[in-house]
Amino acid sequence: MTGDTATNRQILLDHLPQGRLDESSFRAQEVARPEPGPGQVLVRTRYLSIDAANRAWMQGATYRDALAGGDVMAGGSLSEVVTSNDAVTLNEAGLVPGDIVESDHGWQEWAAVPAKRLTKVDVRGELSHHMSVLGVTGLTAYVGLLQIGRPVAGETVLVSAAAGAVGNVVVQLARIAGCKVIGVAGSPEKCAWLVDELGCDAAVSYREPSFFKALKAVCPDGVDVYFDNTGGTILGAALSLMNLGGRIVCCGVVSQYDTSNPEPGPRGVPGLIVTKRLRVEGFIVMDGWDDHPERCTEATDALADGSLKAFEDVVEGLDAAPGALVDLRAGGNVGKRLVHVS
Amino acid sequence: MTGDTATNRQILLDHLPQGRLDESSFRAQEVARPEPGPGQVLVRTRYLSIDAANRAWMQGATYRDALAGGDVMAGGSLSEVVTSNDAVTLNEAGLVPGDIVESDHGWQEWAAVPAKRLTKVDVRGELSHHMSVLGVTGLTAYVGLLQIGRPVAGETVLVSAAAGAVGNVVVQLARIAGCKVIGVAGSPEKCAWLVDELGCDAAVSYREPSFFKALKAVCPDGVDVYFDNTGGTILGAALSLMNLGGRIVCCGVVSQYDTSNPEPGPRGVPGLIVTKRLRVEGFIVMDGWDDHPERCTEATDALADGSLKAFEDVVEGLDAAPGALVDLRAGGNVGKRLVHVS
Fold it and tell me: What is the DSSP letter of A160?
């Protein structure tokens, strides 16, 4: 830990964006470091998670309240327990100073958080891995692909935003499950990475003019499971390629987060869902929380033996967070994007 | 059986319709009564099933091949076994003259059908019931509502085309399951029938200018299961009203069968599917075929004790079939529409 410990630097959402998000929606401020009140714990932010969902929270209430101008920008963190209002609070929460916790206090260096809102992390190996394959990102891929998509060896799995935080883990899990895996990403460079580094059987850029034709060409047996991080055009293309009894895992809608007026859904809804007997299912990662410890053990073993890799894209310093989010929305990341705060 | 038994009157699909179907797409012809060839059985049509799906088959390949101009119009029938090419064929199929079978030979008085394509019907009570609550229509409601929708007592079930063949059975099954049931239909008269005769808690006409507002008002606790026979605007409204963890049963898309260019899907796809963690699932009735005998026994008992009612809308004579389908598309039926042929 370094730097001034008497002040708390924060990044605020200055105002809700209209259309495409840019850095002018944010501003920094410094306030006094908070003192923990009764039942609260003072924590110091180590890593912030930068996610497409950060943008979605600006659109309206989702599984959390909508953000408003003037709020500290919301986001998940890995933070370190510093102190509390009293020893009883720490004891009851099973925490000691130095413990690492997941905390939802947003883009700031310090926070005084009710102990019951902190989740202790059983750190194994690299701390940052608890924001990628060992954290919510990895669990999202696991719950979505294995519990909702339920791929069977030999089936074809299509993944959008395949080079992204969740997508790259989905690709790896689908390969481990013995599936043929097709990735969709936003540039030829990412597509090359998907095939060469991640082991996709093929990858197609959705920015290609002949995207649908190119995608169809690499899915000669159709698609059995489509892991949808995007919605929009890619979802429409996937619906056309789905096999009878196919499953579409609805994980996110990154194509629609930069607008307050989402475009209509694909033409195949609900016609193709009926005729192909598809299951189209949304989920959030909390639905699979009970499996998290077991899943972490599996993933730790897989990291150790090299069958699973953690792909992380770490940006340095709290002030870089707005740019890191804007660039993520433009497709700038490969793997899980994090901000290293302290 | 009456009438000329030497000729076979047929209704042909003269040409594929563009846009709204009318009777000019059909024409009648008379040909010689067919003689059953090896392995074939001569059957005489008793009842034809008139379904919204008849129109969908004109749009392209679904779970069956697309229809083409000049084809005998496709449709399911209850038919009577007359004779076969040889006794072995009947024996192997477990049939005797006079047996009732389900046959897919379309809109004609007679047909010579391969024995293996006939399904013997264990007739209980009224023959026509095997086309409504005891037949494919009833099984569709049963599989869709109970196996896909899985309503729990106390939940709210919303049903579109609720006065239709499948819809009226879904409403009855949802009430038996202890659910609050809201029906959507196309006229104030049908809505009154849904509440007064069928026992819906409320019913709303989708033709009302303030349809969404009216629907919302009668769903104060949201919607847990939406049984979708229509797609389009009603599906969009339902997506807005779905509760977390809700299920949308995709049974049909009657709003889109009169066009070769279906309209875009609702704006909430896939955004609301993600945030509300919905399951949106298509099925076809064949998926539940193994349950059919048991289901028939249950439904026969329920008909006998009055807890289930068969609502049928029978039109007289083969030549009335085109008009019966056109009028069904315009919302003319209440309950299951049949044509009585012989």
Answer: S
Q: Give DSSP secondary structure letters for A190-204.
A: HHHHHHHTS--SEEE
Q: Nearest-CA neighbor of B296 among B169, B171, B130, B152? A: B130
**Eight-class DSSP state of A149:** I
Tens place of pLDDT per residue across chain B (342 aa): 445 789 999 999 999 998 889 999 999 999 999 999 999 999 999 999 999 889 888 887 766 788 999 999 999 999 999 999 888 889 899 999 999 999 999 999 999 999 999 999 999 889 999 999 999 899 999 999 999 999 999 999 999 999 999 999 999 999 999 999 999 999 999 999 999 999 999 999 999 999 999 999 999 999 999 999 999 999 999 999 999 999 999 998 877 766 667 788 998 899 999 989 999 999 988 877 888 888 899 999 999 999 999 999 999 999 999 999 999 998 999 999 999 999
Measured distance CA(B329)–CA(A165) in Å, rounded: 48
User: Interface pTM (ipTM) of the complex?
Assistant: 0.87
Q: Nearest Cα to A255, choosing from A285, A269, A226, A234? A: A234
Q: Partners of B183 in the beta sheet?
A: B159, B203
Q: How many residues does chain B have?
A: 342
Which residues make Cβ contacts (< 8 Å) with residue A176, sequence separation at least 6?
Answer: A302, A307, A308
E-strand ranges in A186-250 read 202-205, 223-228, 242-250
Whole-angstrom CA distances from B98 to A263, B28, B121, B131 are: 57, 27, 11, 18
B260: closest chain A residue by CA: A267
The answer to whether B216 contacts chain A (CB < 8 Å) is no
With 0-12 CB in 10 A as exposed, 13-18 as middle and 19+ as buried, what is A303?
buried
Q: Which residues pair with B103 in a beta bridge?
A: B77
Q: What residue ranges in chain B does DSSP mark as E strands?
A: 7-13, 26-32, 40-49, 77-84, 100-103, 110-114, 119-120, 156-159, 180-185, 202-205, 223-228, 242-250, 279-282, 312-316, 336-340
Distance from CA of A91 to the nearest CA of B (A): 36
Q: Does B286 touch chain A (CB under 8 A)?
A: no
Rounded distance, CA A121 to CA A99, Å? Answer: 8
Spell out where B122-205 has E strands. Answer: 156-159, 180-185, 202-205
Alpha-helix residue ranges (DSSP H) falling in B5-86: 52-56
A113 neighbors A41 (Cβ within 8 angstroms): yes
Mutate to test the interface with B, among A280, A284, A285 (most CBs of B within 10 A): A280
Q: What's the rounded Cα separation, in Å, for the pair A194 and A202?
A: 8
Tokens 């009564």 belong to which residue? B33
Alpha carbon distance B274, B268 (integer Å)? 9
All residues of chain B having their beta carbon less than 8 Å from the beta carbon of residue A270 are: 228, 231, 235, 248, 250, 253, 265, 280, 282
Nearest to B254 by CA among B281, B279, B272, B227: B227
Alpha-carbon gap, residue B108 to B318, rounded angstroms: 7
Q: Give the side-chain half-sphere CA count within 13 A for A316.
A: 0
Mutation pick from B254, B256, B258, B275 vs chain A, by most beta carbons of A within 10 Å, is: B275
What is the pTM for the complete model shown?
A: 0.90
Query: How far is residue A302's CA from residue A52's CA, in Å, rounded to a whole number?
Result: 26
How big is the CA angle at A336 (ends A331 and A340), to the nearest 5 degrees?
110
Distance from CA of B156 to the nearest CA of A (A): 20
